[in-house]
UniProtKB/TrEMBL annotation:
Family indicated by similarity: Belongs to the COX17 family.
Underlying gene: LOC104951593
Name of the molecule in the record: Cytochrome c oxidase copper chaperone
GO biological process: mitochondrial respiratory chain complex IV assembly
Name of a matching Pfam family: COX17
Transmembrane found in the keyword field: no
Protein keywords: Acetylation, Chaperone, Copper, Cytoplasm, Disulfide bond, Metal-binding, Mitochondrion
Quaternary structure and interacting proteins, as annotated: Interacts with COA1. Interacts with the chaperone CHCHD4; this is important for correct folding and the formation of disulfide bonds that stabilize the structure.
An example Gene Ontology CC term for this record: mitochondrial intermembrane space
InterPro entries assigned to the protein according to its UniProt record, in alphabetical order: Cys_alpha_HP_mot_SF, Cyt_c_oxidase_Cu-chaperone
Organism in which the protein naturally occurs: Notothenia coriiceps
Disordered, as annotated region: 1-21
Physiological role: Copper metallochaperone essential for the assembly of the mitochondrial respiratory chain complex IV (CIV), also known as cytochrome c oxidase. Binds two copper ions and delivers them to the metallochaperone SCO1 which transports the copper ions to the Cu(A) site on the cytochrome c oxidase subunit II (MT-CO2/COX2).
GO molecular function, a single term: copper ion binding
Amino acid sequence: MSTVSAASLEAPAVTEAPEQKKPLKACCACPETKQVRDACIIEKGAESCTELIEAHKDCMRALGFKI
């Protein structure tokens, strides 16, 4: 009877490369600033929300979007 170590019975380590991260879509980026901006626009109109609109644009630019 042969002796087999427990280590040799374990599943082999996965050697595949980690899954590539999918690029972030513009619709999903900066949800915090997007939600506040959208609520302001609905309630007050875009003219009254320029600071929030710019804050959202800044957030999008920081993530690499060209706006």
